[in-house]
Amino acid sequence: MKQMIKEYEHSCLLVKQRIVQLTKQRNELRKEGNNGRIDELDLDRRIRLLYTEHSELREIVQHLMNYVRRVEQRAEA
Predict the structure, then answer these.
(1) Are 65 and 5 in contact (CB under 8 A)?
(2) Across all residues in the chain, what is the average pLDDT?
């Protein structure tokens, strides 16, 4: 279970890195006045979806950590 939590946390990190990359790309294109390219790449939607995915991954990690904590507490009792 703890390995699964680590893997989900790693996925969170990868998603966050991708958000940073796409946000940087969108900001650079915006500076260049290339809004058409932003629309073509659908960057705003992709970034929003990644934020949603990141939030869902964090919820899963929190749920798994709570489960592990409860199991450990039962084992101590």
Answers:
(1) yes
(2) 96
pLDDT at 16: 98
3-class SS of residue 10:
helix
- Residue 57: CB atoms within 10 A of its CB come to 19
Query: How many Cβ atoms are within 10 Å of 31's Cβ, its own excluded?
Result: 8
3-state SS assignment for residue 1? coil
Angle made by CA atoms 7, 23, 30, in degrees to the nearest 5: 170
Q: At what angle do helices 2-31 and 43-76 cross, to 10 degrees?
A: 160
Q: What radius of gyration, in Å, describes the C-alpha atoms of the chain?
A: 18
